[in-house]
Amino acid sequence: MSFLFLAVIFTIFTIFTYFKRVFQYWNKKQLPNLQPQIPFGNCPNFAKGKENLGVELAHLYAQIKKEGWKHSGIYIFAFPTYMPVHLDNIKNVVENDFEHFCDRMVGGNPKTEPLHAHLLNLKGTQWRDMRTKLRPSFTAGKTKMMFDIIKQCQDCLVKKVENLGSVEVVELCKNFTTDVIGSCAFGLDCKSMENEISPFKIYGRRALPTTTLSRLKLTFFSNFPRLGSFLNIRTIDKDVHDFFMNLAHEVIEYREKNGNTRHDFIQSLIEIKKSGSLTVEDIAAQTFVFFLAGFETSALLMTWTLYELAKNLEIQERLRDEICDVLEKFDGKISYQSLQEMKYFDQVMNETMRKFPPVPFVNRVCTKDYKMPNEDTIIEKGTAVVIPILGIHRDADYYPDPEKFDPGRFSEENKKKMHSCAYIPFGKGPRSCIGMRLGLLQAKVGLCGLVRNFRFTLNEKTPDVMGLNPGSLFSSPVEEIWLNVEKCL
């Protein structure tokens, strides 16, 4: 018993000593930092599953600004992480000195899980080469060509809501974007609106890190990629990985064998493949991340917009009036061109992404030692960097009364006054979201059909103030959002 007691004491002492040593990192760098907690660092509520990571980082952002610091060192668990808070420092990281911060933290091993060899995970020249290859697939012209596919999904969305007195909009919007991305990325008719057990829907949801174990594995792999690879840690379940990989193989084989073509994303990649610069595995990985990055984020944009419109009926009526006025000039038909004329609509969506950025933070990795401008501090190669988007977007210095939903913040006049990094829902710089146009288009098409045809109000099940889900890395609501639905005459 005494030996066991001594072993426990020794283990606790060793762990305590390790963390005390690790938590001196930023002090030695002489970078201002907040006091961490052993063993959770500066994000104890996230580590305990009590707080969304984006929200906890936003709290840290506010504390750092209150101290008057332009940046700070923080610890996520035992991992030293650099957090810039002054907008000029953020601009240096994402744009001006991008060559020092050109990589993201990886989320898996492409050798054992080829789906991980996608644009978000690739580094250095591999990332640059892939970004160059993919850029033509995301031009305004290519996005416009996918409009008809999105419009077909919108028709199903409107039909689904037509006879409902109330609707849970989180699941509704996810079903819509699953259908859109499944169709645009893979050429599939997923029928998520009709089929609750659609394989694409089931495997697609499982591909996201929604469990504690999956998030821990992702965090471990991001900070110890070599060890994670050595231990053969999987961050995607094998059956999920195989489903998407086999799906891409089948679609490519079918189209090449039968000469079928379609105005969608995978067809663009098949055309690139003909030149020999993409493999089938490359295409599978890019379509996989196209789905991951597109379905959840756009669904959240739609969800939070409907939530705020239900709470702000004057804004909802003004938006509906604009939709109807513009469509009257287009024979009542929603088209790519008609959507471009709905300027207040853009303001509404921008304000939603300010208050609820779908991705509440982004990360980078310092790829070579970086001396801070006008300071002696050096950020070492390999150091993690985090940009607290949610904190910036809810900063009263940039957005007075930040909890208020006010689309007027994004009038043309007000946008001209903004710092370029005060509003970054899609990131900023060379590694900003390549699919931004398509993400906005699918959300706008879906919302246009809903707001044009239905009036939404808060259901009694839905609180007036909604928090973010601690179990999500996105800005997902902590609970269901039920809205009452009334058909517009």
3D architecture notes:
The longest helix is centred in the middle third of the chain and has 32 residues. It contains 21 helices and 9 strands. Strand 1 and strand 2 form a beta hairpin. With 489 residues, it is an alpha+beta fold. The strands form 3 sheets. A 4-stranded mixed sheet has the order 1-2-7-4. The chain has one domain: Cytochrome P450 (Cytochrome p450, Orthogonal Bundle), CATH 1.10.630. Helix 8 runs antiparallel to helix 9. The mean pLDDT is 91. It is found in: Endoplasmic reticulum membrane; Microsome membrane. Pfam families: p450. Belongs to the cytochrome P450 family. This is Cytochrome P450. Its cofactor is heme.
Write a brief structural summary.
52% of the residues lie in helices and 8% in strands.
Which term fits the overall shape?
Answer: globular
Report how far apart the termini are. 78 Å
> Roughly how many Å is the radius of gyration?
23 Å
| Class derived from helix and strand content | alpha+beta
Largest sheet: 4 strands, mixed
Number of helices: 21
| Integer count of domains | 1
Mean pLDDT: 91
Strand element count: 9
Protein name: Cytochrome P450
Membrane topology: Peripheral membrane protein
Keywords: Endoplasmic reticulum, Heme, Iron, Membrane, Metal-binding, Microsome, Monooxygenase, Oxidoreductase
Subcellular location: Endoplasmic reticulum membrane; Microsome membrane
